[in-house]
Amino acid sequence: MTVQGLIFDLDGTLVDSLPGIAASLNRALASLSLPPHGLHTIRGFIGNGARVLVSRAAPPGSDEPLLAALEQAFKADYDLTWPQGTLVYPGVAGLLAELQKRGTALAVLSNKPHAFTTAMVGGMFPAVAFAAVLGQRAGIPHKPDPAGANEIAAILGLPAQGLTLIGDSTMDIETARRAGMQTVAVSWGYHDREALEAVMPDALIDTPDELFALLQ
Fold first, then answer.
1. pTM of the predicted model, to two decimals?
2. Is 172 a known active-site residue?
3. What are the chain's domains?
4. What's the average model confidence in pLDDT over 136-145?
5. Which end of the chain is less congested by CB atoms within 10 angstroms, N or C?
């Protein structure tokens, strides 16, 4: 695999943020007298941004005012508590340090709101000089639309075919393909391996160290 730059998804790829998201979501639900969800169920809600997260968590048929209130409550709680519920996956810190040492251009593209994305990347990876960190922003379509991936390619000054997008979801694979980029799926995140295999990424890895073999 010939690579000039790597674009990483955040949740489920670089960090395990499920415990923090689940705790904040359930506190937000409780604040509105709505029923909570278990960790495994919330795992399936993650990946498409905060509004989709709360829409999936809310009771069927919930109206717009309720969804807006739930989203606001979730974001307010998560803003204060995410560091207690977020862990870097084993091997990821070493992977990023080595890639940076090699001079590989690194970026992050997430559907997490932009403010949370930048805060989390800066807090969890302070020694990594990412060339671009983009989260979900108003007026910019989120993954699987390729707009964010194309924006990163422009920031890096690299052709799409020289970039590889690495993520834990089928949506990441679709995003990369729509942008004309190479695809690497990781099995340690929030999507089942069978679903990832079904969309046939260019590579599927089980540990961060396996990425090095692909880049030789």
1. 0.92
2. no
3. 5-16+86-215 (3.40.50.1000), 18-85 (1.10.150.240)
4. 94
5. C
